[in-house]
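quick q for whoever's on today - can somebody do inverse folding on this one?? i tried earlier but teh output was garbage lol. tokens:
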């Protein structure tokens, strides 16, 4: 069975690819790099191209039975800086994928990876269930929600076998710092580089942090056993403030003789105060469970950075 992972060379994508390969699948990755990216398993079939190019995409997925779409070119901060770019570099490409999938007949499942952290907007109740109102307050969240709406439209009108997954705040080994997304990676890299850690809305922001290996297993569970036409939250179900996360990181850094200097900044306008996800639907439909405790996961990330396997330099902004 051929599974195509669009955006498979990214942070979450690499973990998804490894899990698929371990399950015995033939994996094809579509990415923007000219050649197989460093660190991506050589067993994959890698295609370089724009999945918004209809002719390229038709060739790329002609023999594919499963698709996981992880591609996204922006983050919440960059979408706020340039909302038009957020739309034009993400939405047409996704709609092209749905259109091509609608005209083929091989696809068994198409998983669209959305964002549980942004599509809901300000929480009316927590933990947030999938039927919670969707009123995103960032261009990133609005475009993510538009992609979902198009996906579900193609499902209803053209029987495209779409399932949507909404992950919380993924963290873990392999996440690069200074990308405008991923507080844990950037905080650890800043500490190891002797820089202060910038904290936005430290005690006002609560997020659902989930280790990337649990995200990968959740995405694949949704593909294998999730219902077509449904949305699934994917998180830990537990909320932590940014300052609480920094406290855990500080404890690890102190064990290594490092001092943490934090710069506390106000809550940004595009940050919702609280986002904690109810994942009962995914658990009920697929049997998936998050397995990695936050403290265990954080220690793994700290060791990964400390061992020098992260690019601490050259990604700073």
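ok took a stab at it. sequence:
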């Amino acid at each position: 069975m051929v599974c195509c992972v669009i955006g498979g060379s990214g942070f979450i994508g690499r973990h998804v690819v490894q899990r698929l390969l371990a399950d015995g699948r033939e994996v094809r990755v579509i990415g923007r790099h000219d050649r197989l990216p460093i660190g991506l398993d050589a067993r994959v079939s890698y295609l370089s191209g724009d999945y918004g190019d209809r002719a390229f995409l038709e060739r790329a997925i002609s023999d594919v039975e499963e698709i996981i779409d992880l591609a996204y070119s922006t983050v919440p901060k960059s979408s706020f800086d340039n909302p038009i770019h957020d739309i034009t570099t993400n939405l047409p490409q996704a709609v092209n994928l749905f259109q091509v999938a609608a005209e083929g007949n091989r696809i068994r499942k198409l998983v669209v990876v959305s964002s549980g952290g942004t599509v809901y907007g300000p929480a009316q109740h927590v933990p947030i269930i999938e039927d919670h109102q969707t009123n995103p307050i960032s261009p990133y969240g609005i475009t993510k929600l538009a992609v979902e709406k198009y996906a579900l439209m193609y499902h209803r009108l053209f029987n495209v076998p779409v399932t949507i997954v909404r992950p919380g705040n993924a963290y873990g080994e392999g996440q690069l710092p200074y990308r405008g997304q991923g507080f844990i990676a950037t905080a650890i890299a800043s500490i190891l580089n002797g820089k202060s850690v910038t904290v936005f809305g430290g005690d006002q922001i609560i997020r659902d942090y989930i280790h990337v290996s649990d995200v990968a297993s959740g995405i694949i569970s949704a593909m294998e056993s999730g219902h077509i036409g449904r949305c699934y939250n994917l998180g830990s179900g537990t909320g932590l403030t940014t300052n609480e996360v920094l406290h855990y990181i500080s404890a690890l850094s102190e064990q290594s003789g490092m001092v943490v200097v934090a710069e506390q900044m106000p809550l940004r306008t595009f940050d919702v105060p609280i986002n904690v996800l109810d994942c009962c639907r995914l658990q009920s439909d697929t049997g998936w469970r998050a397995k990695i405790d936050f403290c265990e996961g954080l220690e793994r990330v700290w060791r990964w950075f400390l061992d020098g396997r992260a690019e601490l330099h050259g990604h700073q902004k």
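fwiw Confidence is low (pLDDT under 50) at residues 312-317. also The CA atoms of residues 72 and 90 lie 6 Å apart. so keep that in mind when u check it
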